[in-house]
Structure formats: C-alpha cells, structure tokens
Amino acid sequence: MAEGKTAIVTGGSRGIGREVSLRLAALGYDIAIVYVGDENEAADTVRDCEAKGVKAKAYICNVASFEETKNTVAEIRKDFGNIEALVNNAGITRDGLIAFMKEEDWDNVLSVNLKGAFNMIRHTAALFIRNKGGRIVNISSVSGLMGNAGQANYSASKAGIVGLTKATARELAPKGITCNAVAPGFIRTDMTKNITEDNSELLRTIPLGRMGDVSDVASAVVFLLTSPYITGEVLRVDGGIAM
Ligand code: NAP
Asked: With the CA atoms of 185, 30, 129 and 60 taken in that order, what torsion angle do they form, in degrees rounded to the nearest 10?
C-alpha cells in the first residue's frame, strides 16, 4: 500500500489517465490530477478518488508550458507535502498526411506529448533526487514504435517519449529513481471515438482482434510504478500489434 504517497497524473481527468488515477487511489496514493480544460470531468475524477479514502485535487495546467508546469508542481508540493510518483499521460492527436500537415499541428503535438513530459520530469527530478527515490511512467504509443501513416507528428512525439524514458532512466538510476514507458495500441477513449468495431480493416491489424480497455493500460502503469527493479522498459499494451 502507498498511504501518504502522492502521485501526479497528467491528463488524469479522462480516459486512460482517469483509470490510472483511480487505480493508484485504490492503492492508497494521494492524487494530483493535471488537466487542461474539462473542469467537470476533472472534478468527477477527484470525487471518485476521494471516495477511495485518499486526498485528491485537480490542477488546470497546460503541460506544454514550462512556466505553468513549474508553478503547478510547486503548488502540488505545497498542497501535498511530497511527490513520489509521476505519470506523464496527457496527450493529443492532430492527424494529417505529412505532405499537407500544418506546422501548428506538428508543433502542438510535439509540445504537449513530448515537451509536456520533459517539463514535468524537469520540475520533479530535483525533488526525486533529494528524496533518493521516485517513480516515473510515461505514456508512449505503438505509433511511436512502428510509425503510423497520417500520424507523423504523433509518432515522432511518442518515439521521442521512448528516448526520453531511457535517457531519464539511465541518468536517474543511480539516485534510486525508475523511469519506464507504456506503449498502448488502440484503447477505447475519447481519443479513439471515431474507431468502431466496424473499422474491420484496422481491427485486422490487432492479433487479439479487439481494442483494449483503459484498465488494460492502467494495470501496466501500476505494475511499472510499483516495480523497484524495472527501469528503462517500454511495455506494450497493444493486443500484439507491434510484436
Ligand atoms: P483522452 O481521453 O483524449 O484524454 C486526454 C487527457 O489529456 C485529458 O485528461 C486532457 O485534459 C489531457 N490533456 C490534453 N492536453 C493537455 C495539455 N496540454 N495539458 C494538460 N493536460 C492535457 O486521451 P487517452 O486516450 O486517455 O490518452 C492518454 C494517453 O495515452 C495519451 O498520451 C495518448 O497519446 C496515449 N495513447 C492513447 C491511445 C488510445 O488508443 N486511446 C493509444 C496509445 C497511446 P482535458 O480533459 O482537460 O482536456
């Protein structure tokens, strides 16, 4: 159990991040959720975490902003006292073919998905080093492992997460800090709401023949967050897509 420990979950208001927040709350972690816009969903998740008997609070903060993330991490420290775990889950897609991709779509996806994770690690690392411990899990994607047509920006950001994870793992291992990544395939959330079971073309690419559930990803995140001797790992949760 993790009573008295605090976990930050970016993008914790909805989808995969919400499920991760609830699972960590069930383990006894106090939960700090970082979200960008949907106040009601964030409030719902906070309430559901609190119902598990832990402290929870939501912070509106664009993870792409170095300053906002710095201030938010400071606020979380003030509110919770310490931080033991960080889950970099916030992410967006702005899909398009590379020949037509808008510069702003490239920049936004890289800023949120990759720089966002850097920002959060950057502002928590000194505390983890001082604590001689800390657990980081970053959410990558099979798109980052294999590349996905129509997702050059997203695939690049998620491949970047793999490099960021491994470099961070090597750098912080001597301080007792672990850093791992989870690479989901197609998981049912708002992000994939346009994919239906009738998209048989896409479903044929999944050896297990179906999309995954948020609980499949949350189980992997919890496993890595509670594993003291695994670091620099990228764990696929993809029904076999990228094997
Ligand atoms: P989702 O349902 O669209 O939720 C995205 C979450 O990220 C929301 O909580 C959102 O906050 C937050 N967010 C977005 N931009 C943000 C920003 N700039 N600053 C702070 N928070 C921000 O997404 P999901 O499907 O759960 O995906 C979660 C992660 O898994 C993402 O990194 C995604 O790339 C990755 N992933 C998903 C799949 C999939 O099939 N779903 C597959 C592979 C990887 P608001 O509610 O305030 O908007």
From this structure: 70
